[in-house]
Design a protein that fits this description.
Blueprint: H1 3-15, H2 23-49, H3 63-66, E1 70-71, E2 77-78, H4 83-99, H5 107-116, H6 126-139, H7 145-161, H8 175-185, E3 195-197, H9 204-219, H10 225-234, E4 235-239, H11 242-254, E5 263-265, E6 284-287, H12 312-324, E7 329-337, E8 340-347
Helix pairs in contact: 1-6, 2-11, 4-6, 5-11, 8-9, 9-10
C-alpha cells in the first residue's frame, strides 16, 4: 500500500471512532500523531550526529516507548500498551505532560509546548487508535529518503483537502498561489533575507519560501554549510489558532526545519502596536491574511487614529507597512483572486 493510500485508510479508521467528528478533527488527530512519530525518528538521527543530544520529551512519552510496536515472544510485533489502557494513557498522562513542558528550557521544548498546549485527543476507542498507530508504523519511515521526499506531497494533499472542511479551509492557500507569490518577491538566501507570514495558517507560503531558498542553494557555485543552516533562521511565522499552528509546525518538520520554534502560536493583531520592536523587522512578508474576520473588542485600539479599523486585512496591512517590514519598504503586490487575498511585500 502506498503512502497516500495508507493515509486514506487511517482516515477511514478514524471515521469509525465516535469521538472524531469531521474532516478537521480527523486531520488534527492524525497530525499530532504524525508529529510525534516523525519527531521521534528525527531524534534518532540527531542522537547519531550528537551523542550528547538530550530529548525534550520525558523518556516514557517518546513515541518509541509507548506507541511503536515491538517484537513479541513469538516474533510478531505487538503494541506496548493494550488497547483497553491506551486512551487513558494518552488523555491522563501523555497530553497533560506535553502541555506542561517547560518552554523556556530550549527551542525544542518551546516547539513541543506550543504544539500541544491547545491540542486534543479526539479518539475514544483504544483498538482503533492502535490500528492507526500500526498503519503509521508500517508506512512512515522518515529514515527512508524516498518516503521522506513523498510525505511532504501527501501532507500537502491533506492540507488541500482541508479546503472542504468547513471553516477550516480558510487556513490553506493553494500551492499555485504560494509558489507564484514567493517567486515574485524572490527572497535571497545569499543576502540572508528573512521571510515572515504573520498569519501563516498551515504554512503554505513558508514552505514555498523554503523550497525557493533550496533552489537557490542548488545553483550556488560554492555553497557553504552555513548557507544550508541559515534557511531555518530565515523562516518566521505567527498563527493564532491551534489546528493550523499544529499543521504548520508539522509541515515545517516535514520540510526539513528541525526546530520550528520560530512558528509562534499567538494572535498577531493582539500584540500591542508599541510592542513591536525595530530589531524584529524583516525583509519580506508574504501572507494571505483573514479578511472580513472578527477580533475581540479592544484589539487594534492602540493603533494610530488614522489606521484604526475593524477589518482584519486592513489591520494586517497597516501592521506590515508600519511595524513589520524594514525601513524603506512598501507593498509590492496586493493580489486578489476570487476569494483569496494575498499580500507580498519586500524591503527595498
Amino acid at each position: 500500500m502506498n503512502l497516500s493510500s495508507t493515509i486514506k485508510s487511517i482516515q477511514d479508521i478514524m471515521r469509525k471512532d465516535d469521538g472524531v467528528d469531521g474532516d478537521a478533527q480527523r486531520l488534527g488527530q492524525l497530525t499530532w500523531m504524525l508529529f510525534l512519530k516523525v519527531f521521534d525518528q528525527r531524534e534518532e538521527e540527531w542522537a547519531d550526529d550528537n551523542p550528547a543530544y538530550i530529548s525534550p520529551l520525558p523518556k516514557e512519552y517518546r513515541w518509541r516507548n509507548w506507541a511503536a510496536y515491538i517484537p513479541g515472544a513469538d516474533g510478531k510485533k505487538k503494541p506496548q500498551i493494550a488497547g483497553s489502557e491506551l486512551i487513558s494513557f494518552v488523555n491522563n498522562e501523555l497530553f497533560p505532560t506535553l502541555k506542561e513542558i517547560d518552554a523556556n528550557k530550549s527551542p525544542q521544548h518551546k516547539v513541543i509546548r506550543s504544539v500541544f498546549e491547545d491540542a486534543n485527543n479526539y479518539m475514544k476507542s483504544g483498538p482503533q487508535m492502535l490500528a492507526v498507530i500500526e498503519k503509521l508504523e508500517d508506512a512512515i519511515n522518515f529514515h527512508d529518503f524516498t518516503i521522506r521526499a513523498n510525505i511532504g506531497d501527501v501532507y500537502e494533499q491533506l492540507l488541500n483537502d482541508l479546503r472542504g472542511a468547513g471553516n477550516a479551509g480558510e487556513f490553506y492557500t493553494p500551492r499555485a498561489i504560494t509558489a507564484f507569490m514567493v517567486d515574485r518577491v524572490n527572497p535571497r538566501l545569499d543576502k540572508r533575507e528573512t521571510v515572515m507570514d504573520p498569519a501563516c495558517g498551515t504554512g503554505g507560503f513558508l514552505t514555498a519560501a523554503i523550497e525557493h531558498f533550496r533552489n537557490q542553494l542548488a545553483t550556488m557555485k560554492s555553497p557553504r554549510p552555513e548557507d544550508k543552516r541559515a534557511i531555518e533562521a530565515l523562516i518566521l511565522g505567527i498563527e493564532k489558532k491551534q489546528l493550523p499552528h499544529l499543521l504548520c509546525t508539522t509541515n515545517m518538520l516535514l520540510h526539513g526545519i528541525d526546530v520550528p520554534s520560530q512558528i509562534e502560536h499567538k494572535n498577531t493583531l493582539g500584540i500591542g502596536w508599541n510592542e513591536w520592536k525595530a530589531s524584529g523587522k524583516v525583509d519580506c512578508i508574504i501572507t494571505n491574511p483573514p479578511f472580513g474576520g472578527y477580533e475581540d473588542d479592544g484589539v487594534g485600539s492602540d493603533y494610530p487614529a488614522d489606521l484604526r479599523t475593524r477589518e482584519t486585512a486592513d489591520m494586517f496591512m497597516a501592521l506590515i507597512i508600519k511595524k513589520l517590514l524594514k525601513e524603506k519598504a512598501a507593498p509590492r503586490w496586493y493580489y486578489p483572486m476570487d476569494s483569496y487575498l494575498a499580500m507580498a511585500s519586500k524591503a527595498r
